[in-house]
Amino acid sequence: MEIDKMVECNRLIIPVFYDVEPHEVRNQKGPFGSIFQTHEESGENGVKEWRDALTQAGEIKGYDIKTEAYGREKKFIPLILKRVLKEVNRMPLDVPKFLVGLDSRISKVMKMLNVEASGARMVGIHGMGGIGKTTLAKAIYNRLQPNFEACSFISDIRKASKKYKGLVSLQEQLINDLAIDKDPSISSVSQGINIIKRRVHSKAVLIVLDYVDHISQLDAFAGSRDWFFTRSRIIITTRNVHVLNVHKVNQHQTCKLNELNADESLELFSYHAFQNPKPLDRYTKLSKRVVSTTGGLPLALEIIGALLFDKNSLEEWEKVLEKLQKVPIDEIQGRLELSLDGLDGEEKCIFLDIAGLLDGMEKEDAIHIWKGCDLFPNIAIRVLLHKSLITINDGNSGLHMHDQLRDMGRQIVLRESLKPGERSRLWHHDQILTVLANREGTAKVEGIIVNFEEAKDGVQSPLRTESLAELSKLRLLRANYANIIGDFQHFPRELRWLEWQGFPLGSLPLGLHLDETAVLNLSKSNIKEMQCKVFDKLKVLNLSGCYHLTITPDFSVVPCLVKLILDNCISLVEVHKSIGHLKAGLVLLSMKGCKELMELPNELCQLTSLGKLILSHCSKLCSLPNQLGDPMSLTNLAVGGTLLTKLPNSLGKLSIFENLLLDDCYQLKELPSSIGHLSKLKILDIGYCTSLATLPSSVGDATNLKKLVLDATALEELPDTIGLLRKLEILSLGGCKMLKILPSSMGKMRKLHHLDITESQIRELPEDFGCMSKLSVLHIGQNATLGSLPTSFSQLRSLAVLHVDLHNVSVEKIPENFGNLSSLQSLTLFNSKHASLSLVLAISTHEWLCDCLCWSEEQTC
Prior knowledge:
- The protein is α/β, with parallel strands linked by helices.
- The chain is 26% helix and 12% strand.
- The protein has a 19-stranded parallel sheet. A five-stranded parallel sheet has the order 4-5-6-3-7, with helices on both faces. A two-stranded parallel sheet has the order 1-2.
- A hairpin with a 6-residue loop joins β8 and β9 (399-400).
- It is globular, with a radius of gyration of 31 Å.
C-alpha cells in the first residue's frame, strides 16, 4: 500500500478527504472498514501495517471538503494548492553524521517556535561551546524551511563581525538569501537595518542567527519582532544568555542546552570510537569510564572518541583514561588538549598555525606555505582530519576548526610566556601594536595576523620597519591595510606567507626581501608595477583588485609560480610575454573582470601544466590564442561575458578538458566542430549566447557531458545526435524563443534528470519522452506553447518537480494515467483555469501529492 510506504519513509503527507469522513479513514470505519475486513478474511499479508499507516495519516491535519471553503470545489482547489510553499530548491544544511539525543531537543524548540501560531517569534538557544547549539539550529532549520516563503542561516556571526565591514557583509547575505534584492550594496549597518526592516515586513521568513555574542549584532539583523511579518520565526544561538535577556527574548522562548545523559554520551562516543552505537564488549567498562570524564559534551565525546579509534589495546585506552582523570571535570579545553597526544612536532605546529593564524585558508595555499617551512603538510592534514581536529569546507577547500579547538590551541600558545613578544604566534590586535611599538618582539615569534580597517580619510598611524627587526624567525604575516614606513632592509626575511591587502605603495621597495616567500597576497593595493628581483620560491601570487596595475610582472623572476590571481585588475591591458617561462608549473591563471584586457599573448599556449584559465567578464577580450589547445593539462576554461565571436579549433586537442563556460558571450556565433573531440567534457555552458543559432552535430560525440546549458540562445533546433549524450543529467533550454521542436532522440538520454524548456516555442514533446526514466525536474514553464503531453509522459516515474503552463492544455489532453507520476513532489500549474479537483486527486491518490502544489491564474507563481 502506497500510504504505508510513505509513512515508513517518513514522507510529507497532506490528506485530502473527498467524500469521506476523516474518522472513517483514521479508524477504518464505513466503506474503509468493509474493504479492510475483506482483505483480512482473504488472509492477505500486510493488512495490519496498512491499518496502522491509515491511522497515522488520518491523524495528520489535512483538508475536508465538507468543512473547508464552505464545501465549494472551486475555492477548495486553490486552498489545497497553496498548502505548502516551494521547497524543492532549498538545499538542507550539512549536519554531523552521527546525531544523538537531538530529537528531544528539537521537539522542545519546535514547541517554542509553534509555526502554526500567528505573530512573529524569536527563540533563543544558549549553552556552553561545543554543546551542539549550531547543530540543533541546523536540524530545525532543515525541518522548517518548507513552511516559510524565504529562509536564511547566518553562520558564526561573532567571528564574521570582527572583520572589516563584517556586519555589513552579513546583512547583504541576509538580504540575498531572502531574495529581497539582487546583489544589494550597503555602505553601513544603519542602512542595512533600514533595508531589512522595510523588506521583511511583507513575507513570512525563517532566520537563524548563529553564535551571537553582542546585542549590537542582534540589532543589525532583528532589532525587534515588530520588524517582521506575522508567522516569521527568528532563532538565535549564543553562549551568553545575557544577550537574549537584553534583547527581551521571552524566557519561556529560550532553551538552555544541557549536556548529554550517560546513555546518549556512550552512544555518541561509540559512534566515533567504534563506528557503532555500542562499544565492543571488552571495551564497554572502559568506554563508560572514558565517557564519565567528558561531562556529556558532544564535542569532547567526538574528539576523544576519534582519538581512541585507532588504539587497539586495553593498555593504550588505560593510559588515555589516566590522563583524562587528571583534568578537572569542568576544564573542557584541558580534556580536548589530550587529543593532541600522539601528534608529532610537525603535526602540532600545523595545528597551532591553523588555530592561531590560518583558520579558513584554502588548503592548497596553506600546503605551499608549510612546504616552504620544510614541513610535510599532506600527512599532517590527514592526521588532523582523522582525529576530528579540523574540517575541510567542500565549497572552497578551506581549512576550518571548531572554535573550542581553536581556543584550546590558542591557550597552548598563551602559556608559552607571560610576555606576548616571546610567544610563537600573535593574533590580538592591541597586543601586537604594543609589541611592535615598544620593540618587544623576539626570535620566538613565528606568526602574526593583524588587520587595520581601511581608514576612510586615508590617515593611519604608521608602523616603522625597525619594529619588525627583532622578528628574525617570523614566517607567517598578515598585515592588511598596514602603513609601514622606513628601511625595508629591516623587514623579516624568513617569511613564507605575506598577506598585505591594501599595500600602500606603487611598487615593491628595493629593500624588501621575499626570497623565501611561498604565498604573496597584495590584493586591493595601490601597486602599479611589480618590478622585483627573483622570487624563485614564490608559488602563489594574488594581485586581485589592484586597480592601478596596467601590466603583469615579468614572470621570469617568479619561475616556480603555481597560481596567479589577477581578478578585477580593471586597468590591466597587457599580460607579459614572459608568462611562457611558467610552462612547467602554472596550474591556475585567473583574470576575471579585467575589463581593459583585449588580447592574450601566444606564449600562454606554452603553459603545459595549466589546468584552469578564468577570463570571465573580461568585457573587451575578443579572441583567444589559436593554439590554446596545446596546454594538454587544461581542464577548465571560463570566458563568459567576453566579446569572443569564435573559439580556436585547437580546443579539440584537450583530451582531459572538463568544463567550458561561455555564458553571456553575446557575439559568439558558432562552436568549432572539434567540440566533439572533448571526450572528457562534463559541463558546457553557452547560455545567453544570443547570436548562437546552431549547435554542431559533433556535440553528440562529447559522450561524458553531464550538464548542457543553452538558455536564451538563438537555436532553432537541436542536432539529432544530442541523443548520444547518454550521461547528460541537466539540459537547460529556458528562453530559447526560436526553438520549436525537440529531437526524437532525446528519449535515449536515460540519465537526464533536469530539463528546462521555459519560454520556448516548443509545441510538442517527442512521443518517447517518457523513456527518460531518471527525469526528476521538468520546467515547461510560463510562456511555452505546448499543446498537449505525449501518452508516454506518465512513464516518468522519477518526476518529482513539474512546472507547466496549461494555457493551451485542457484536462482531456492530459494523459489519463497522469496520476502514475508516483514520485511527484512539486506541481506548479500556470493559467490552470480548467484544472478541476479531479486532476488534483488523480495525482494525490497515488502519492497524496506530497510536498508542493502551487496554483496560479497569472503567468507568475
